[in-house]
Amino acid sequence: MGRILKLTAAVALLNLIWIGFSYANSESPIKLDNCPTVPFEKGRIFEINQKGKPSSYIFGTMHSKHPDVLKLPTAAAIAITEVPKIATEVSMNEQAQLEAFKMTILPEGQDLFEIIGPKRTDKLKQVLEEYGLPEQLIRRLKPWAVSTLLGQSPEELRDTTTPVLDGMIQNIAEKTGRTHLALEDINEQLSFFNNMSPEFELEFLDSTLNSAGLSDYYRDLLRENYLKGNNGIIFCVAIAVAASESEKMKSFILDDLLTKRNYRMVDRMLPHTKDGVFVAVGAAHLPGEEGILNLLKKQGYQVRRLSGAVPAQ
Q1: Of 132, 124, 103, which is closest to residue 208 (Cα–Cα)?
Q2: Which helix (H) or strand (E) holds 78?
Q3: Do residues 48 and 265 touch, judged by C-beta distance below 8 A?
Q4: Residues facing residue 45 across a β-bridge
Q5: Amino acid 152: pLDDT
Q6: N or C: at which end does the chain have fewer Cβ atoms within 10 angstroms?
């Protein structure tokens, strides 16, 4: 797969939930003074049990290639060896990348810069300078795809060989001969973006551009709290970001990108708990009343946080 195709596929596959949390429609940091207490606000790896079934495990990920993120906690490194199946949100194989590529590209004859207008184009060019991406690629992307691209750091986006944590976990499944399961297909995930109205796509892009100067701040904030297992803070960031947006954008972040997908992924992982499965999903999906862990608890599963936060070698 060529470098340009890989870069474009990365736009869609690397970010998903995190792009919604990385930006608020503001040029100053969001405030996290009054974060509510929510179920399962601490922890990165959890064991789930139900009578008559073997243990399964839920591991929160961050869709990142940062070296610290790629070090599995000891408990996760042990748990992943104890089950016959490994599940991630979506498959990151070449077929999925090709499908993602097709969904991010504008129809023939359309040009991003013409769609978004001269003022947005000038602002976008300034933000994209450090990414070093060819203009002919940018002009072919849909507005939502450019927004998701900006959720990644320039360094991570240029690195087309190192997998994100989710991709690394899929590689473990394939290299060790375990069954790999995708809880969603790429069309389901990207349909939330691809079905946006033209007006909402521009709102989404404006929100991203307005806070582009804070992108490093939010990436560092999320990564720091992710490594500490502070799921409650990550969830609080999501709520705070959503609160700064329009009602439509708020619903998109909290309902479409989070809650609806939580229910869907729980439904799809449940049949595999009879054999034992290691499930790796974005950490933002774990906490909250309608988070994956609480939904499993309501299904009669015992949920236990595992210790062992020290990264395994």
Answers
A1: 124
A2: helix 74-79
A3: no
A4: 59
A5: 79
A6: C
Alpha-carbon gap, residue 154 to 129, rounded angstroms: 10
Which residue in 74, 80, 59 sits closest to 305, CA to CA?
59
Residue 312 has pLDDT above 70, yes or no: no
User: What is the CB neighbour count within 10 angstroms for residue 56?
Assistant: 27
Q: What is the mean pLDDT of the chain?
A: 86
Provide the residue range defining the domain that includes 32: 3-305
Most confident of 58-67, 139-148, 186-195, 288-297: 288-297
Domain annotation covers residue 175: yes
Q: Rounded to whole angstroms, how far apart are CA atoms 263 and 296?
A: 10
Tell me what pLDDT residue 244 has: 78
Tokens standing for residue 300: 């009669």
285-297 per-position pLDDT tens digit: 999 999 999 999 9
Tokens read off for 51: 């009578």
Q: CA nearest 209: which of 136, 95, 119?
A: 119
The tokens for 13 are 């596959």
Residue whose entry in the numeric block shows the structure tokens 């499944």: 173
How many separate domains does the chain show? 1
Residue 310 lies in a domain: no
Max intra-chain CA distance, the chain = 62
What pLDDT, on a 0 to 100 scale, did the predictor assign at position 30? 66
Does residue 209 lie within any of the structural domains? yes
Helix (H) or strand (E) holding 173: helix 165-175
